[in-house]
Amino acid sequence: MTTALQPRSSTRRVDDDFGSSAGKAIAVLEAFRGAGAVLGVTEIANRTGLSKSTAHRLLAVLVERRFVQRHDNRYMLGRALFELGSLVPDCRPRSLREAAVPVMADLYATTRATVHLAVLEEATEVLYVEKLHGPGSVSTPSRVGGRMPAMCTGVGKAMVAFSSPDVITANLAQPVRQLTPRTLVRPDLLRENLRKIRETGVAYDLEECQLGLRCVAVPVLRAGTEEPIAALSLTTRTNEVVRRQVANELRWAANQIATACRSHGL
């Protein structure tokens, strides 16, 4: 009897250990969200709540499997994650990017401003799907795959303004992170701002995300509806002259992307 029962007990213990280790390993990978490209063990431990010894042990396994790379005692995400991500079927951000990049390239060639494409995630954050910039372009805190609070960004406000009442309520109900002294945080001002965006179809970030930056954004609406698929923006320095037709160029580009999305089944 003892011999027969032992395998079941052992299997149960291994499964429990695997579940715990898997959760901790995922927490280590999640620590890189919004934290920059390179982190040390102490930073990872602090962000995950794990001990440094546990974080170090998990990192060693992740490095061995190429999910994380090590460089001079600091760590960055590895190529294995990129390889796996590329295998995700029906990946909406990837399909959206494929539909939008040709239009974004034309927009960048015309304006030479930094072009962003983003989607709304979990109602209150934006996820950057693509970013086009070149030599001399303004430096921005955004990055492809990165997230920002929706109400601090032009793309976020452009999407929230055209979203359902539940999404608008969710964004107005929680405190807005004040990234700069110019970030709008009062619910009454934010509500009025969203009303104007809905009326004009254009959103602005006037140094609300980072001082010295100005952003003009428009929603990409699903063809024949007012449902936002994504948002498109141009970012420049505040001291740069912005042509009057920029909003119209963005609207045109957003319509082109919406048409392309329809052909991609989005």
TrEMBL record:
Keyword entries, A-Z: DNA-binding, Transcription, Transcription regulation
Domain IclR-ED: 80-266
Pfam families: HTH_IclR, IclR_C
Domain HTH iclR-type residue range list: 19-79
Lineage: superkingdom: Bacteria
InterPro entries on file: GAF-like_dom_sf, HTH_MetabolicPath_Reg, Tscrpt_reg_IclR_C, Tscrpt_reg_IclR_N, WH-like_DNA-bd_sf, WH_DNA-bd_sf
Stated name of the protein: IclR family transcriptional regulator
Native source organism of the sequence: Sporichthya brevicatena
Source species taxonomy: Bacteria, Bacillati, Actinomycetota, Actinomycetes, Sporichthyales
